[in-house]
Amino acid sequence: MGIRGRLFHGLTAVAALVLVGALVFGFWKGESRRSNRAAIVQDDVSDSEMKLTDMEYTEVREGRRLWKLKASEARYDSESQKTLLSNVHLILYTKEGEPIVLESREGRLHAGTKDIDLWGDVRARLARGDRSYELVTESAHYRHGDGVIHSEAFTRITGPDMELEGNRWTYFLAAEQAVMEGSVQAVFTGVSFRRP
Amino acid sequence: GSVNPAAAAETPKGPEVKALAGGSPLHVASDRMVVDQRSNTIRFEGHVVVKQDDLVITGKRLTVYAKEGADLAENQMMEEVERIEVEGEVTITREDKVARAEKAVFFQKEQKIMLSGNPRLMQGKNTVQGRLITLYLEEERSVVEGTSDQPVQAVLHPKRSED
């Protein structure tokens, strides 16, 4: 009866899914860059606004570094209590101090909540062993209060052996859990799980 | 009822199993995917469909369990997987062959798949079912186990000479 043989590896194809892990476990970690550059104040702006260049800010809580924000230009508006950012480089640190690096063309820091919006070619690049993966989306929001990064925009993650996409994604820093939702599609190549 | 080994039927050796060629891309679709670094798991949830060539696997949930301390990104992926579970109206289809169960678990190390929850194997009009069906990949052998309240049952339609 051929059904046994032919179907055997049918189910075993599922094992191919492990490749997801290459992306996922590694995905949320990145390379930290350490640079301390002074913020230069320039005041050719409106009264309620102040412009900084080469801005760098690190958020620390109880001696632990939570995140570091860098921008080529920052325009702080005292009325709205928001800072508009250009060429944003945001490093979020997990509990173990692992960096998660996000970059975008523009962003906004909310003074009160310390939430951060990112938009315009939002990217996260990540190297894991000899493999590197890239996340691309249009916008993302970091909620400082509960340490969550969330995006309601279509997101694609690509790597040498896989592609993954979905309509929304969220990463919970404290729980170290990532969620992709909405028409999730994953494609894995080079998959073979029969032992050689 | 406990599993009655005596009732286990060892099905004859199946045809050569075509290992999953590494060449064809494997496609997975679902409503949601959750990666949990703490528990070392990846879960696909809702309308899970796995496709590769003419093979299709569907179910409600699929979970990949990595070994303790495994670094799935660093090492060869397959060595790091402990098991993969597919749950909820699981169907595996290839050509005219279908396997159905409530749960299918692939054990990487033992290279076996265990089908439970009214498992059934079908090919055309032929069917075999029991309480537990275990497919041993490397030996290309399967064992169907039954119990007093869920005995092994097989319906085989011998090929007529003109078929």
UniProtKB/TrEMBL annotation, chain A:
Q: What's a single GO MF annotation on this record?
A: lipopolysaccharide transmembrane transporter activity
Which keywords does this chain's UniProt record carry?
A: Cell inner membrane, Cell membrane, Membrane, Transmembrane, Transmembrane helix
UniProt-listed InterPro entries: LipoPS_assembly_LptC-rel, LPS_export_LptC, LptC
Q: Which domain of life is it from?
A: Bacteria
Q: Which residues cross the membrane?
A: 6-28
Write down any Gene Ontology CC term.
plasma membrane
Q: What is this protein called?
A: LPS export ABC transporter periplasmic protein LptC
Q: What is the lineage of its organism?
A: Bacteria, Pseudomonadati, Thermodesulfobacteriota, Syntrophobacteria, Syntrophobacterales
